[in-house]
Amino acid sequence: MAYDLEFERPLAELDKRIQGLQRKGDRLKADERAQLRSLEQQLEERTRQIYGNLTRWQRVQVARHRDRPYTNDYIKLICDDYFEMRGDRRYGDDRAIQGGMASIDGKTVFILGHQKGRDLKEKTECSFGLTHPEGCRKALRMMREAERFHMPVITFIDTQGASPGLEDEQRGISQAIAENLEVMPRLHTPILSIVIGEGGSGGALAFGVADRILMLENAIYMVASPEAAASILWRDSAFASHAAEAMRITAPDLLELGLIEQIIPEPVGGAHRNHLEMAETLKAAILENLAELERLPMDVLLEKRYQRYRNIGAFATEPVKAGSGSNR
Amino acid sequence: MAYDLEFERPLAELDKRIQGLQRKGDRLKADERAQLRSLEQQLEERTRQIYGNLTRWQRVQVARHRDRPYTNDYIKLICDDYFEMRGDRRYGDDRAIQGGMASIDGKTVFILGHQKGRDLKEKTECSFGLTHPEGCRKALRMMREAERFHMPVITFIDTQGASPGLEDEQRGISQAIAENLEVMPRLHTPILSIVIGEGGSGGALAFGVADRILMLENAIYMVASPEAAASILWRDSAFASHAAEAMRITAPDLLELGLIEQIIPEPVGGAHRNHLEMAETLKAAILENLAELERLPMDVLLEKRYQRYRNIGAFATEPVKAGSGSNR
Amino acid sequence: MKDESQPALPVNSQNGNHPETIPSVAVSARALPDNLAVKCPNCRELLVGKDWEKNNHVCPRCGHHFRLSAEQRIELLLDEGTFEELAADLIPTDPLEFVSRSQSYRAKLEDEQAKSGLKESVVAGTGKIEGLPLALAIMDFRFIGGSMGSVAGEKITRAIEKGLEDHIPVLIVSASGGARMQEGLLSLMQMAKISAALARLSEAGVPYISLLTDPTTGGVMASFASLGDVILAEPGALIGFSGPRVVEQFMHQRLPKDTNTSEFVLAHGMIDAIVHRRMLRATLAKLLRLYHNAGRSAVIG
Amino acid sequence: MKDESQPALPVNSQNGNHPETIPSVAVSARALPDNLAVKCPNCRELLVGKDWEKNNHVCPRCGHHFRLSAEQRIELLLDEGTFEELAADLIPTDPLEFVSRSQSYRAKLEDEQAKSGLKESVVAGTGKIEGLPLALAIMDFRFIGGSMGSVAGEKITRAIEKGLEDHIPVLIVSASGGARMQEGLLSLMQMAKISAALARLSEAGVPYISLLTDPTTGGVMASFASLGDVILAEPGALIGFSGPRVVEQFMHQRLPKDTNTSEFVLAHGMIDAIVHRRMLRATLAKLLRLYHNAGRSAVIG
Ligand SMILES: [Zn+2]
Ligand SMILES: [Zn+2]
């Protein structure tokens, strides 16, 4: 796996030298061997250092890395049994959203999320993870099933947003997102959402009304993609990096703002460097959080979920002029 | 309004003579005036006699009469206030099914039904009353609204069946009908269905799972249209009249079979002869039945509705050979 | 096909044909003599009867899934010896005293019973798959095209009620052309009756798996067959509301080749999966396990 | 349009233009001087200001519905003198300390407040229509394009809570380009917060009427605006998830002329009715009456 992001250039150079030495194999001299060890140490240290100090815009690039694990990768690595459920029973089977019933450590859950697709064929099939109305409705169907059978719902969020095509408008992408937002707060089963890559706008939120929201260390979550925000704010998407900084889109930002519950650490150099290690950390976090959520009586769970959202918002109050209105 | 059905020929002749005399107006002689009165009496008697002895196939023709009142006619004549609700919030607004919130005698209900359409333009717009998946889903949305606000649901059934087009298959006409059949038995509000014309197959049943089913005197209700049944049974739709007889599709048949609760009498010569009188009779029947249904506690209502369907079926039992199975 | 033996079943589909073989044997549950051959209606391959049977009545060349009898289906899916029949004593009557142009309904019933060895188009009961219990109802297309009358409706309802009582998952295997004309509106109302029972099952949190096999059409598809928590289909089955013939005839539409097949309904979001017969038992076992291991043990088993 | 004043609002739509008139007057709630004229952006007709006002700011020639301020909307809809404001003391802050390339968010807020005479993009309160009480929230497009930040979200939520407490119907009049970028994810989460409150309202059997006016797009359309028990729209309003510009730019699709209008969403089954502004008050009154007269009096009023 190459180091192909711009800020990884120092790592790429170290990696090149390491590979040069490794290619010698058995012919490696003693001092070269020492040098290799030293370079490998340097690479790990530099990786740790660089990845420990990413700017927000760099995190956007990591979150979008083409080798980053996707929903289906995690399902494969985390679940011991899986039955994919397809279709919204109304119009189609949106491959941008995939999921089904799965067994994690012997316990059945519903697990679903955005699938961006890795190669061009899969990307096209999955609409690059941009959900259509059918994807929202398929997810809703699964959530209702989960509720019926007292299975927790786990959603993986990884999208730039909902699909903005003409056909999406025709089939009610707004309505589909809105319906999820109305049903999820009252779903009588625990919901755990994890932003595994990009969380973008309504296309993310429609899968992210949860009891707890976790984010992978380098994941981002935002009201609009940095490009879209820059375009809206300054009529120029070239200012995306600026928008990324201004909008506070990283996991630490959002933890600080109280909008997420937990950050899940990634392997050194990002989730894409080690899918298996990432999946194991993620699995542990899922199990721990689910165990805590399942201890709560249903009415407490629902009340806490409601209050979680009810209390979001930052505003001040100022005295109202006499007679101009009443306060709550 | 002409007498244009085949079995109405004697009436048409009487009517023609009556009209001939009426055209004379003031120029009518005394004996002609007496003749006119006699002819009018004869017409009414003959009408009463013919309409009192309709064969099943003749009733099919009356139920399909082009001047027969449709859902929207009744809504106009029965309701003192009406707000039409449109759309399934998923794909479209099926004009084959129309309805909304309405006030009957000051009380709010949801009222909806098939609209066949009178002229060609309206017929086309309404798909001749053949519901698309969107029509079922629109109705379901209204029924859920009715449940939420404790309003009774009144459905008017008047269709040859659900629409059998390719697009209907693509958007899940089967699924749409099935979903109504699953939701209606558990809908927490009274449901009253009235077959006002033709009740055909799944396209009718999807709007007819009710606490009580009433039928207008000349309405028909059947598992498949006589033409379709003949085609299925004898590979020839020309035997439709035969199928109509064999399948027992009239209101008296179905009352006898215990499949409907009540027959609503039509004006002399059929509902199409006097929309206003028909609407008044219908309104009275609706109010009376609703009042009775609303007196029941919800759990009793739902249990009775369940048992209403649970007990449908005619079968015998015979001793089972030893060891070949267990009985209930 | 000129008699009353067919329900509302579309013909002329690529899957709607019976295999060309000795008729009363190929569609029965009895084993074939060693030397008999069956012709695949899809690829025209001549299949050796014994091999064809061992291959679960699937054509090894093109994968065509032949229809199974209820008995064969039970053998394919359930743990051996676990099937216990329910409501086996129910027999059809002629509630409408159906006046037919040809054979009377009573005579027809007797004929079909003799030919198929079945009393009706549905077999209901309980059984186990990989040790996990379930209630089930299986439609048998041999009996008047798997059509739904009062007895079929009652048996399916009893299977659902059994699932509800014992809190065990319910499986319905559909194979039907729809409602049975000879029982008139009683027949249509079975769709409402079964769906109402399923609504109770669903409210009680008991899973329902619907398996669609060739063919599943008409009122069956427009009711319980479409209401599964999970809906599976065998490959290449004819599945739809109207048959292609009806659509082409009444709507004057020409249909693409795969209209109203398993693949069509999957593509249009109506079912969860197409499962090859070879994998069917394993898939059902997986589903039963997943439901069985639900958090608050909604399902006892 | 080159500053930060616009939210996620699509431009270039036939309805997205401000009327060509003296800007600060035409969009304010204050009465026009007798001799002023306004040009209809749709049909280019020159309208006499006073006539235009009497006609509820609708072009008498082509029916174009001009945007209304929250104050004008209240005057149009409510019984005179019945409006009581809720949560009037809430004012926006700058929770992200938003680092902007141009004007700071704080400065922008001050500017917009001065220009519009509003503290935020939403006015909430209670009132009556033909004597029947309701809780309501009205978005005002003049304030940063009606964009949703924390204050807008909070005010709308309080209106819903008021409806829930007093068991009176809730009306939300939308006019918004969507979420406000400068409050980042806090802004997106307002959609979830409002929708959750609406879910409680719905469970309690209290009616919610959503009125869509020009423009209703983005996160607003994809949440509460689409959740009405009844959804009404004014004619010719821009309504949709993405603006036409986004669709054409990102999806490389050319759009038919009426895409994402009131007429479009009605045709696609997303709303119940398009109501001319002249009939709006009467229609709302009818709906309130119908809800009020529900059988078991779910609604007290
Ligand atoms: Zn073959
Ligand atoms: Zn104009």
| Secondary structural class of chain A | alpha/beta
- What is the percentage of strand-forming residues of chain C? 15-25%
Structural class of chain C: alpha/beta
The backbone outline of chain A, from C-alpha atoms, is globular
> What is the largest interface, and how many residues per chain?
A-D, 64 and 80 residues
What does this structure look like?
The complex is a heterotetramer, with two copies of chain A (328 residues) and two copies of chain C (301 residues). Chain A has helices spanning 9-24, 30-51, 56-63, 71-78, 120-125, 133-148, 166-170, 173-183, 201-205, 226-234, 240-247, 251-256, 275-294, 298-310, and strands at residues 81-84, 97-104, 107-114, 153-159, 191-200, 212-216, 220-222, 262-264, 315-317. With 328 residues, chain A is of the alpha/beta class. In chain A, helix 4 (71-78) crosses helix 13 and helix 6 runs parallel beside helix 8. Chain C has 301 residues and is an alpha/beta fold. Chain C has helices at 23-26, 49-54, 70-77, 105-116, 150-166, 184-203, 218-221, 244-251, 262-267, 277-292, and strands at residues 37-39, 46-48, 84-86, 90-92, 122-129, 132-139, 170-176, 208-217, 230-233, 239-240, 273-274. In chain C, the strands form two sheets. In chain C, strands 3, 5, 6, 7, 8, 9, 10 and 11 form an eight-stranded mixed β-sheet that branches. In chain C, strands 1-2 form a two-stranded antiparallel sheet. In chain C, a hairpin with a 2-residue loop joins strand 5 and strand 6. In chain C, helix 5 (150-166) runs parallel beside helix 6. The model of chain C is unreliable at 1-29 and 296-301 (pLDDT under 50). The interface between A and D is large, with 64 and 80 residues. Strand 9 of chain A pairs antiparallel with strand 4 (90-92) of chain D, so a sheet runs across the interface. The structure holds zinc ion (2 copies). One zinc ion binds next to loops of chain D.
